[in-house]
Design brief:
This protein is α/β, with parallel strands linked by helices. The chain contains 8 helices and 7 strands; from the N terminus they run αααβαβαβαβαβαββ. Helix 3 packs parallel to helix 4.
């Protein structure tokens, strides 16, 4: 992971974001809503702009920040996004509507592990972006990987979890933290062990795994 000094340096190099994007970032900060870090979202958007996916599945809408950023970066893409939390789901819908993107960003409320049959009707997806409950990453991947198009790519955020995956788990304070880090570490290892996929982890933001078919 990059140290704070380097992260601040890179963030200061980024072009100023539109006011509505800054407002969403400030709302997330004030209301403790997890959204992608500034350097992480910029890398994801660059990768997506190179890939040019036409259909994207996002697991974990939160307030719609990343879905909106993706839609603005990829004006021809259609995005399907799932959110479990009712309050965040409603806030995401408000943000998406305010941006006039409701025709390209389709929100679904519920547990992503229970909505696969509905999501299947919109498959295949050129890109799948996993950014929800970290303890369920393995299940999300297994459930939605079959819905990936032939040249599709799966992007997974927070795979380094503030560097804790590289530490001795005995250093973590709670049992919940130790369990979460263990599951996340197992998920990371499983990505690199897939025979028909290749994966790399980019240590920006909170760590982004990029997985594509060989």
């Amino acid at each position: 992971m990059l140290n704070e000094e380097v992260i601040t340096y890179i963030e200061n190099l980024l072009p100023e974001r539109p006011i509505y994007v800054q407002q969403m970032e400030e709302f997330a900060k004030q209301n403790d809503v997890p959204i992608m870090e500034k350097t992480g979202i910029e890398v994801l958007l660059l990768l997506l702009s190179l890939q040019q996916p036409k259909k994207i599945l996002e697991i974990g809408t939160a307030i719609g920040y990343s879905a909106i950023r993706m839609a603005l970066k990829l004006p021809e893409a259609e995005i399907f996004t799932i959110e479990l939390d009712e309050e965040r789901f409603q806030q995401a819908n408000r943000n998406i509507k305010e941006m006039g993107l409701e025709k390209r960003i389709h929100t679904m409320h519920g547990d992503a592990l229970e909505l696969s049959e509905n999501v299947q009707t919109f498959a295949p997806f050129d890109a799948v972006f996993i950014d929800a409950t970290k303890a369920k990453y393995t299940k999300f991947f297994s459930l939605y990987e079959p819905m990936l198009s032939k040249a599709g790519i799966i992007y997974t955020d927070n795979v380094l979890f503030k560097g804790t995956v590289a530490r001795d788990r005995s250093e973590l304070k709670t049992r919940r933290q130790r369990t979460l880090v263990r599951k996340l570490n197992e998920f990371n290892h499983s990505l690199f062990e897939l025979n028909n996929y290749e994966t790399t982890i980019i240590p920006v933001g909170d760590g982004i795994a990029v997985t594509r078919r060989k």
